[in-house]
């Protein structure tokens, strides 16, 4: 009996192949996905990991055995799978482990229109069926199995993205892109085709063993090569995608990282120009600059918990036009409320190419405060340490405390958020203030309690 508690996470399936899951389990997941969604047809896609094609095909077999038609779009980025789900109005399954090491793989599932499937929206039921069938055997097949066919949607995906951003007036730009041997190497050439960019590709060879660096651009170690190439080539901008290319990280012409909060604010301003008066979602660790810019541009900011399921649910509830997270996930109403780093990148390129200044000059107006970045502390008692921090700040004059997501303490000059990891014995700290000295002081005060 497989231990599904180790691989079925809050939003997806993820684990080591074949130790924790394999093709036989993937087939059961396919059958369970078909049963829970009640779909007569679904769409699947996969990344470049060595185990992905066989897992995706096994999933398709499981769904087809119950009479479900399966359209395979093959190699794709996660946001390309979301596009297919929205464009074809079908539930979808993407085989990827994003930025995890090569031995991992996983499944990101969605309902028709790219609506997320998480623990509260079907994933718990899927897990229960897989556990049952792993013991009793696969469910009885349908009298007529569903067909499995193939369809290439890459060109349609690229055309849809380009239709949402006007790049016609852009000046020529030199753009370095580090795909990290992930799916950006598959999608970027088609999306950028015909645009006024001198593309400098890095690590575009699809290789799920990640021979050059981890495909996780939020780790500073993994953008060192990109920063160097931007400086060497005199490029205007550098872009780094994660393994499944749904996140995009930006560096400026100096090779300096641009805060994802600044990118959120920049894209929010552009989306509000298209959709005046709209609502913009941001999570509780994005910069103060995000709600400020939203209000300055006539929009309504809404703060939510960290995590794509919370962002997407709030976007659907509020009709928001855009949402951004400090993890470099960007969500668009024009993209079925799904996250797409590629569309965010096109917005940044359009903003940069539509004026004569440098990227660092452009984003300065959106990057207004000093920040610590996320600091992780390994602790044996998450709840106890968090409670100690809360007690320390509960009576601080002028401070507001809220527990929307972990603990947030806000004053006139600084704020911090301390929240537990859902998967590891960690507390994650983010601090922002009006100056760097205050960031250092507050950071050290909180860490002294957390690590006592």
Structure description:
The strands form four sheets. Strands 1, 2, 3, 4, 5, 6 and 7 form a seven-stranded mixed beta sheet that branches. The protein has four domains: 4-152, Alpha-D-Glucose-1,6-Bisphosphate, subunit A, domain 3 (Alpha-D-Glucose-1,6-Bisphosphate, Chain A, domain 3, 3-Layer(aba) Sandwich); 156-255, Alpha-D-Glucose-1,6-Bisphosphate, Chain A, domain 3 (3-Layer(aba) Sandwich), CATH 3.40.120; 260-364, Alpha-D-Glucose-1,6-Bisphosphate, subunit A, domain 3 (Alpha-D-Glucose-1,6-Bisphosphate, Chain A, domain 3, 3-Layer(aba) Sandwich); 370-450, Alpha-D-phosphohexomutase, C-terminal domain (TATA-Binding Protein, 2-Layer Sandwich), CATH 3.30.310.50. The mean pLDDT is 96. Helix 8 packs parallel to helix 9. By secondary structure, the protein is of the alpha/beta class. It is built from 14 helices and 22 strands. The chain has helices at 23-37, 52-65, 78-88, 123-136, 154-164, 184-192, 224-233, 260-274, 289-296, 308-318, 341-353, 359-364, 382-393, 436-450, and strands at residues 13-16, 41-46, 69-75, 92-95, 104-111, 115-116, 148-150, 173-178, 197-202, 237-241, 248-251, 257-258, 279-283, 300-304, 322-324, 330-332, 370-371, 375-378, 400-402, 407-410, 414-420, 426-433. It is 36% helix and 22% strand. Belongs to the phosphohexose mutase family. Keywords: Isomerase, Magnesium, Metal-binding, Phosphoprotein. This is Phosphomannomutase/phosphoglucomutase. Its cofactor is Mg(2+). Residues 6-133, 156-255, 263-369 form the Alpha-D-phosphohexomutase alpha/beta/alpha domain.
